[in-house]
């Protein structure tokens, strides 16, 4: 059954590849690295973990290996494809840049526009504000999402960004931060400080507005 499915996916790719979703592109790519296994769940997990295809191909091999279903060889090959693309596009014209609040708000707002459940995203940036890695965490069964301190420390030590931007949403209610939001951001700020990473901003999105810790003059409390 899987072999027939793979052939149908390749036929679609050949004739109408532009119609593929991000998940279908990853699923089909993984056919080349993972044999005799349904790669659709793995593709979904990769997108959940890194936010989008851009995030997947900018993740390091060790971060990719932390994803269920991804072994070392698959991680190496995914990273290799990302490295080739980055080399071809080394002028940086295709990369996301989050240098100021306007760029950050616009980019994150698009990513949170259709989120029905609460989601947390971390944007890891280089010295020029270019996005080098994204970590996405969501939980459809809970009203609260957060990232474990050890996992965050591993990500920061692995990617070695210069700064970090935090974004999350309140699917229902106002964008104003709760005590729990402040507590979670304080933990993130502590891990950033231990790893020599600047916590640049934290933005909360809701249907009723936005809340920026930076614009409200509060981000220094958490650095």
Description:
This protein has 223 residues and is α+β, with helices and mostly antiparallel strands. The protein has two domains: 87 residues, DNA polymerase, domain 1 (Orthogonal Bundle), CATH 1.10.150; 122 residues, Cytidine Deaminase, domain 2 (3-Layer(aba) Sandwich), CATH 3.40.140. The protein has a five-stranded mixed beta sheet with strand order 2-1-3-4-5, with helices on both faces.
What secondary-structure arrangement, pairings included, does this model have?
Elements: H1 2-16, H2 22-30, H3 40-50, H4 53-57, H5 61-65, H6 72-88, H7 101-112, E1 119-125, E2 131-138, H8 149-159, E3 163-169, H9 179-194, E4 198-206, E5 209-212
Q: Which properties best describe this structure?
A:
2 domains; Cytidine Deaminase, domain 2; 223 residues; DNA polymerase, domain 1; alpha+beta; five-stranded mixed β-sheet
Rg result: 18 Å
CATH class of the largest domain: Alpha Beta
Number of helices: 9
Low-confidence stretches: none
Q: What is the first-to-last residue Cα distance? A: 53 Å
Count of DSSP strands:
5
> And the CATH topology of the largest domain?
Cytidine Deaminase, domain 2
Q: Please tell me what the overall shape is.
A: globular
The run of helices and strands is HHHHHHHEEHEHEE
The CATH architecture of the largest domain: 3-Layer(aba) Sandwich
Report the mean per-residue pLDDT as an integer: 90
